[in-house]
Each structure stands twice: as structure tokens, then as C-alpha cells.
## 1
Amino acid sequence: MEKGLANATQVLFTGCSAGGLATILHCDDFSARFPQQVSVKCFADAGFFLDVKDISGERSFWSFYNRVVQLQNVRQVLHKDCLANKDPTECFFPTELIKSIRTPMFILNSAYDSWQIQNVLLPTSSSPEKSWLSCKDNIGNCNSTQIKVLDEIRNTMINDLKVINDKADWGMFIDSCFTHCQTLFRISWSSPTSPRLGNKNIAKVVGDWYFGRSQGVKEIDCEYPCNPTCNSLPPP
């Protein structure tokens, strides 16, 4: 704040991957540091991590999150209304976090997030069989049975995000590209070959939300492999 942020009239708080999770976690606290007349919004890229079982049926990612919560005493910054009814580790997942956030937020994520497929669904500890190893490296190698499993992950994400439909000043762009963190590279963020939903690329949709050019900026893609604009992205 001392370096000039205190003089800001418009503020965008953002991060990708673990930084996207941190954006969701600290959004309201960050917003509270500014006077009410300052426009503060939060933008989380690839931070919507899911509480789902891995391919072996274990909640290995939940166990990982639980260790983070314990090690860093994350409970102190979790929403009290969630803690009143749920385990602190559950309250660390974005599914629960977004229910209590009051600051306007935009969620950018792939419903087939490559990092989550590789590390949440198919971690090394789950001992995935050889066909899954090929699938986790490249979604184009997945067979129809495996795609159905990935579709279930997508459906979980879409269902968890339904709460956003009741938040008029929120936005989202959920595509079906096998990728992770789409704000870091021009090819995915804003280029002639960027992924598109409703004939708009990510930068256009986020801009419409941020500057209030349109209401209810909430875009959700169809199931993989329906979106041909995903094909130009580099390997995850």
C-alpha cells in the first residue's frame, strides 16, 4: 500500500494455479484494505481445485490439502460460516470458499484442467495403469471410457460453480481445453487462435466483466472435444 497501491481507484487482484487459489482465499481480505469507493475485483485463473477421488478411489488431494491446512494454520483465514459446519480442509477448497465471498470475482478454468487430471485424478500414488499414463499426458490419447471419467470431473466442476449464477457481479469462462493457466501466454489469452466461447476469447470476456460492458458474463463450454479453438494451444 505504501508503494502507491493506496492511491488506486481500480484494483484487480489475480493469480494462477496456486496463486489462483490464493486469490480466491484472500479476495475479501484484500478488498477490505481499500475504501468503499475503490473498485476492487478478483480474477482467479486455474485455481478452482476440486475435491474428487483419484483413480484408485482415494482422496489423495484432500490429504495433501489437509497437510497444508495443518502446516500453515490456514484455519485462521477460512470463513467462519463454513467452519461452523465443515472440516477446515473442506473449507479450503474453492467449492466452499466461493459461497462466502462478497467481492466481485471472475473464475477462469478449464473443465479438463491438465494439472488436475495429472495430479488430482491420476497422481503417482494411485498407480495408474499404462493406458492412463498415456491419457494423462495428452487427452487426445484417452479412450472413450477414460473420457467418460474426465467428463465426470467436468460435471463436478460445473455443478460446484452453479452458486455463481446467483452472483450478478461475478463472471466465469470455463472451456474444455486440456490446459492449465491461460492468462500467462498470449496464444491462450488474446490472439487470433485463442480459445473462444460465444465467439469471444478470454481477454474479451474478462474485459467485458471487469469494465461492466455486459451483465452476467458467464461462459461454459460443451464437453471435450467439441471446441475446435482449443486445438491451437501448446501442450500443457
## 2
Amino acid sequence: MMYWIVFALFTTAETITDMLLSWFPFYFELKIAFVIWLLSPYTKGSSVLYRKFVHPTLSNKEKEIDEYITQAKDRSYETMMRFGKRGLNIAATAAVTAATKGQGVLSEKLRSFSMQDLTLIQNEDELQLDGADDTHTRVCSHRNARELVITPHAFDACI
């Protein structure tokens, strides 16, 4: 774990030093040698750097770090609650809007299929209607008005 903490710090510092020191002769070779020194079990470079620099710094700032974590946790809880309430309000508004708009469309569709229209067709055996494009639509009716079948071809059989 010490290696990964030191390596993360090295990677952070590397982004700045690459821009500033990449012109320096043997810069990239020195970086590779440093990473090998960090990784090597014989030199234990990451352990040395962690124990001399990282651990003392973290120990001195431990209370500040804990306070920051607590503040971040509280803020994140408040933020999530605020976004959750906003999301629920948006979803509720969308559901009510869709229900009110959908109800009007549904009632118009139901009015066009009233039982009076269906009972007029119920007594006829077969009707042929001519469309605007000269196609025939065959309407077959059954004893029950709910079994009304409309087929787009004149020669289709009623189901």
C-alpha cells in the first residue's frame, strides 16, 4: 500500500515536471530509474519515502482530514436529498402532465368508437367502402359488436 500511495504522489508530480523538465538530458532515464528504485524490494524506496515524508504529514493533518471528510459526507447527503426531491418533483409533474394530456386523447378515441356506431354496423352482413385512392375496404360484422374486423383487401375473409 505504501508503494501505491507514493506512486500516486509521483504521478501527480510527474505531470508538472514533464512540462518543465522534459528538455533536461536523461530526464526520462532518471524517471525510469526512480520508479525502479520505488518498486525494488531490495531498496524499499517507496517504504523509505512513505515513512520519512508521507506518514508524518498525514499524522499531523489527521484531524483536519477527518473534519474535511465529515463535511464532505454531510454536504453530499444534503446535495443528494436536494437532487432527489427535485427529481421526484420533475417526475411527478411529468406524470400529471402526461395523464392530463393523455386523458383528452383517450376520451376522443373512445367517443369515435361509441356503441351507437357499432350497433348500426352489427345488423348489416357486409359493407364495401371505396376509399379516396380507389382501394376497397371490407367490413365484416359479427353478432357481437366487439368482434368487428376490418381488412384492407376486398378478398380477405372475415375472421
## 3
Amino acid sequence: MAAAGGESSSQNVSDELFQNFYTEVKQIEKRDSVLTSKQQIDRLLRPGSSYFNLNPFEVLQIDPEATDEELKKRFRALSILVHPDKNQDDTDRAQKAFEVVDKAYKLLLEPEQKKRAVDVVLAGKEYVEHMVKQKKKQLKKDGKPQDVEEDDPEMFRQAVYKQTMKLFAELEIKRKEREAKEMHERKRAREEEIEAAEKVKREREWQKNFEESRDGRVDSWRTFQTKGKTKEKKNRSFLKPPKVKMEQRE
């Protein structure tokens, strides 16, 4: 019973941390939603953005549980804010930021893609929760207070954020490796296809040349044979029997 009570207590702590995490996220979203155009562009193009922006929810600053209508409203607001037409003094960077926002929005419009993104976020949260439990378990075993830095909602949020970003980055690296492998295989298959086609072409050309030169070879052989026979007859006509020397009688 004590063990069951301990598990229930741990689950309650986990649920509380999760709720605090999303409460903190919403507060940050509310704060960041009032960023100026320049600040949003800077956020979307900051150093390391190629990995930060793999998380579409991070790009759009929206809760993974947001409805489609909320997603659409957020996209409109953010896309207008970073649109090149609104940032004439920085159109190149604004265009890049707009493309990042547009890509994230289109990804979340696809049910399968959105599910994958949500699964990554949940996996990041579950991983941190598991690590927190392991830390507390070890502290309890060592007879120490079971206080960890992730008990602080802000630290928990940061841990989930870092782990989620890491998972998105790992998936992207695997995707690129898979894409590079497929490209290499396609290139090799194409090279083999070209080589096979060249081989067939060479064989056809050889056969064509052979057929075209066959009559010439036959005529040459016949001429050679005819000349040989003529020469043989000629040699026979001039062939004389050897003279026999008569013996003189005494």
C-alpha cells in the first residue's frame, strides 16, 4: 500500500510539474506575442535557429494543444509582423523569417506531421519526468532530501525545452543522413543504368558495323580464292617434266 501511495504521490507531483510547465509556456507566449517586428525577426534568425526552428510550436509560439483556429490566428498575426512589406528596411531578413513561419504553419496543417511534432514534445517531457524520478529515487536511496532543481517550474520548463530541441535535432540529423543515403543510391542506380545503356549501344554499333562489312569481307575472300586458283593453273601450265640423261654405251 505504501508503494502504491508513493507512486500516486509521484504521479501527482509529475502532473503538477506538467501543469506548471504549460502555465509558464503560456506566460512566455503572451509576453513574446507583443514582440516588435524586428524582435521577432531576430528571434527567428538568431544563432542556432536552424535547430531551434525545427520545433514548429516554438516558431509560432503556440501551445501544442492549440486548436486549428488558434493556429490560424497565430500564423496570421506572426506572418504579418515579419512580412517583408512591413519591414522595408530589412526585407532580406524579413523574407527569411517569413519563410520560417510559413514552413512551420504548413507543417502543422498536415495531421501526420503535427502528430509527429506533438509526439516529440511529449517525448521530451516524459524523458525529463523520468530523469526527475530517477534523481529522487537515488536521493531517497542515499538518505538525502529529495529536492532537485527541476522542482522549480522554470528549471523544469528549461529542461523540457532543451530535451525537446535535442530530439528535434536528432530527428533532423537522421532525416538528412537518410536523404543523403537515398540520393547516393539513386545516383549509383542512375550510373549503372547509363553504363548498361552505353554497353547496349556499343554492342549494337559493333553488330551494325559487322553486318555492314560482312559483304566486303566475303567478296575479299572470294577474290582471294579466285586469284589463288588462277595462279595455280598458271603454274601447272608451265610445269615441264625433268630431262632424263641417257647413259652412253661403251
## 4
Amino acid sequence: MTYPETQLLHALPILLICDNLRDPGNLGTILRSAAGVGCSKVLLTKGCVDAWEPKVLRAGMGAHFQVPIINNLDWEAVPNYLPNDTRVYVADNCGLYTQAQAQMSNKASDYGWVCDRRPLKFHKYEEEEEYLESAANKGWLPELEVQSYDSDWTEAPAAVVIGGETSGVSLESLQLAESTGGGRLLIPIVPGVDSLNSAMAASILLFEGRRQLRVRAEHLSRDGSYH
């Protein structure tokens, strides 16, 4: 497919990775936000709903023809689609990382991100509590720095991972984030609120990334005008 010239000119060094997103409405809304922000591309891992399913198309409102979408990827293939020096950041909402951290710390919340639900299953492990306990003890869970969504995470090309609302993000996404020097992005919400919708969280993070890039460009322009 070819894409509008104006869209290509405004593409940003921000890439979106959808991890096991199964709801067509959510995926379509996320694609619409990705197109609006100017994402360079969107990657869909295996387990996501088909991007070209009718309900996704309807919710996307034309986004499919504004941003490149790559479907049905194995995690082993994902790095092939990332620009050099890309850092991967996960928005872990009720996923594997959150649950293991809760077991280790015995806390119900983490810097204001409250999640009362347990994932129905993990991508690799079915016996949740046993594996979470062993994860903490054996150290196979990647250690990712938790940072606020409005901290500066766009210094290098960035890829944001959004997980499905049932299972959260996968272990593979956490491993990729660790290997690229990325981290976990936290959107604080008030206690008592279960979680954010995946599409809402994706929109907040993508537009925050765009804001950071715009501010950096303005600073560089201002600094250059002084010389």
C-alpha cells in the first residue's frame, strides 16, 4: 500500500506494538489514535484480532489507510521492524509484571495505578499464582524501571507496547523492553478506579510522546536561533 504524502512527512519516531489485543473496537480506536499522532507504523503480534476485521475497520474510521499496519507477528520477528536504537516501553495494565510485583510487595497499588483484576491467563504460563511466586524467587521476570508517562521517554526512537485488557502485556514484551533499555510507563489514576481502557491508555501515551517531541524541537529551534 501507498500512504498519503502528508502523513509520511508528519510521521514521528514513535511506533506502536499491540500485544494480544482482542477487542475489535479497542483496536480500531487505537489505530485511529496512532494515525492521528503520526506513528511511523503499528505492529500486531499473534493473538491480536485481525486488523482488517469489519468491526476494526469501522472503528478505525480510515486509519488503516493512514498508517502502515503489520499483522500477525511472532515476537521473535518484532525487532526486525524496529528502527535502530529503538527503546521499547510497556504500558502494563493488569498484566504479568503488575501481578508479580504485587506478590513481591504485598501491595494492591503501585504509584497510584490500581488494578483489582487478575489476568485470566498468561501467554506462556497457566498456573498463575505458582508461577508468579516462582518468578519472584527465581528472578526470571525482567526488571524494568517504572517511570511516569510524562517523564522524558522519547530521547531515542520509541516503541510503546499496549496489552489487551484480559491478559495485559506478555512476558516477551517485557523481555524486549529490558533488552532495548526501555521501561514501564505508568499513568497514575486515583485509588478505587479499576484500570484504564486499552484504547484510552494508548491514546494518552502516544499523544504524550508527540508532545515531548514537539517541546524538544521547539527548544532546539530556540537554542539554534541564539547562535
